């Protein structure tokens, strides 16, 4: 709470003649794994001038020590600012060494069910929130293409210090875990020693790097819960504007990792081929990287789909390593981290069996 208040002061939101005056209320948002995130609103009595029209909620993310282990201080939050400047993410009001303050987006945080077109509408259980999800996936594809087409200014440290953000953060997490000591006993019993973790990462890295796949400014954690559909009553039942949030792991990297993270499911049979194709087609039409014409043929869609599926096992492996990283950083919740890590490693083993088949398919569609 002390850091929260300090960030509000640094953002010139709290204090004499500031929008929040000297009073605010904070609400914890979600159950963040690596940071503390709050929705902050001024108390009505503290509003400067007492005009409720000035009352705008903000989101304050306070960086944890774990976050600073995974991502260097001079990089943490920098892509949030870039995304803000490019109008891809929330407007950032302040970025400091202890966190960032940004606008609060009034909207719907997406779920896995939404992108697969199976999330039910609470007001009409026979319908889904976003229909079958194809229009939603098209809009997500266009927005992600905007991020991927963004150039990283040379003045940002990340442009000169990071070749691939994914490999850098994996190395940082494995280095922090250090050895088998901090790894929960049940995870070790399942065969997940520190040596095996390092070897699995190295194997994936060698195989993917050898393919020379497209690298862009990636989001890095492009799961549905990092996508917000803005509320817009004027659209009726249509899909509002898409806003991408949480750029902590953003940086240079393989675009296929972002693609697969969006559609990842423990049950691949739930994945909606039509929605994935709609996403890819929209992405290609909007992407400055691909320089694709307004017409995208099915062969090109199949090529990108094959590229995307190569990253299935790595999305699970990275998540499992993160939960071991969290277990060392927060041993008070060791059982929670252990269960989450084991789940991700189980899915990695299952998807790893499909990797060679996906490699063959990738080679086939590019012949």
Describe it.
This protein is of the alpha+beta class and 367 residues long. Helix content is 45%, strand content 15%. It is built from 15 helices and twelve strands. The strands form four sheets. Strands 1-2-3-5-4 form a five-stranded antiparallel sheet, with helices on both faces. Strands 6-10-11 form a three-stranded antiparallel sheet, covered by helices on one side. Strands 7-8 form a two-stranded antiparallel ribbon. Strand 7 and strand 8 (124-128) form a beta hairpin. Helix 11 (273-286) crosses helix 12 (298-309). The N and C termini lie far apart (57 Å). Mean pLDDT is 89; it is low at 50-54.
Mean pLDDT: 89
Give the distance, in angstroms, between the N- and C-terminal Cα atoms: 57 Å
Major sheet size, sense and barrel closure: 5 strands, antiparallel
- Determine the fraction of residues in helical runs and give it as a percent range: 40-55%
Structural class: alpha+beta
Strand proportion, as a percent range, falls in: 5-15%
SSE string, helices as H and strands as E: HEEEHHEEEHEEHHHHHEEEEHHHHHH
Helix count equals 15
Say how many strands there are. 12
Rg over CA atoms? 21 Å
The main sheet orders its strands as 1-2-3-5-4
**Low-pLDDT regions:** 50-54
Dominant shape: globular
